[in-house]
Request: fold
Amino acid sequence: GETSGSPINRDITRANETTKDTHSSTNINVESQTIEYATNPAKLKEDIGKAKEEINDIKWAIKESIHDRGDDNRNFFGQLSEVRLDKSLENITSERLIGKTVDTEIAGIFKDAYKDLGYDINIIFSDPKNSPQLLDEKGKPKTGTAYVDDYGVKTIIINAQDSKNTTKAGLIGTIVEEGSHVIGKVESRQRKTGTDEKGLESTGRASNEYFAEKYKDNNTPISIHSDGKDYSNVDFGENVGDKANEFADVGSTSIIPGLSYKFNMSGDKARKYVDQQLTSIFGTSVNWNDYFNVKNVEYREKMNYYFVLAKNTLRVKRIIGTFKKSGNTYIKIVQDNNKEMILKELPETEALYHNLKIVNGEIHMNFANLNRKFVQDDGYELITTKNLKQLKGDPINQATYNTYSYLATIMTKNESINLWDKIMGSGDGLKHLDTDVKFWTLYGTSPQDPTNNKVSYNNMPSLYDQRQRLANRSLGKSIVDNYDIYKKAASYHNNNLSLTQLEKLEKNMSSIKKLTGNEQVNKIKSILGVK
Reply:
């Protein structure tokens, strides 16, 4: 059982917290875990070992977050997630790899392991002649490379002619390095690199190093061959590891120097560019005197955020339609520049915050005829009506932009895991909450968002204050975890719930869930104040 004193801190969202020992020397209550340890010393030894591994994981993550071999700027939680993925791979593959010395056998073991972890990755053995994807921008052969296409198909290409892949340890290192690039894309962890080796920028090198250490005494030569197939005209999708979602590090620092460098323009032209983007979408521009006032941090951060939203708002010429693939719904659109884009639809629970309205000065959440939310790995969002018309003229519900767009692909993983647990178990899930959701909480969807209003109305708290409450993580978790109950409750109240009603349901959710049938219905109606 769980102790009430000092449990091992396995929650990565609290990984840097210190647990407090609340035991007293005069406490005569002997806990079940204490009895278990007394009767089974092996169990005590096992749990101590797990605790030590946990500490080692955290030490490794701290070290990697300070000095990552891939020039990766991810935070501590991302690194902790990475080492745990590597350890999961090791646990799954170590026994199966014993005695294996053929390229396809080793690759097959890792393919199965990634699939067990929720990532279906195809592994190909080729050479630069048959696969130009194995050549970098300077024509230099790569050891390996990885791709993810718009449909989520993931591919690793291994250079069978590279001497680094001719040993067991070398091949394993390349596979896990490229696998890390794929997962980095899926979880939107890619960052630009400060090195010359394109395609090796994410956490891959740290993963390679991890497995290199594990297999340093097993440098057995292996049999490795190119499959000889011509991949020169195959579109594998995006070569992952090349870029981050734009402005993932947006904050209160001036964005003008970065734009000047990125687009090779003067500071004056960069300012005009910012104003053009803001004007085209929001009909507003920056007060540059306020922006460059060193004391005006909040204004600068707010305008940076609105610029990022404006620049990355999808300019949709037309919607081609939706289609299904592997159990997911996708939408294909044509943008104003005539380029097509495919986005994935998220579940209703992820669209609810784009289904808000204001009634008598209070925010309400709608649960019927819902607007639909589609997202893409590069952070783009598209909100449509139920009938697939792009949502326009509705600033409280319009699309934003995700600098950490993990949700685009997270739904293809193990569906037995609660969505909220997936979010909280992902380094980028946390970053999404701490950046994208934080900025929405502070500044809404746009300058025109009515919930930016900080003036109270009709004896109600201001809409701005209500938005802070609506963004509360415990409320969001409750809605995701108990969506059917909230939806049922809304059906008794014109298919929408006020913020106050949402909060009351959350407060009483544990007692509601204990009831069934009419008893539960009556309890819900009583909380809502309806007959």
In short: The chain has 18 helices and twelve strands. The chain has three domains: 55-239, 256-311, 316-528. The radius of gyration is 26 Å. The longest helix spans residues 41-66.
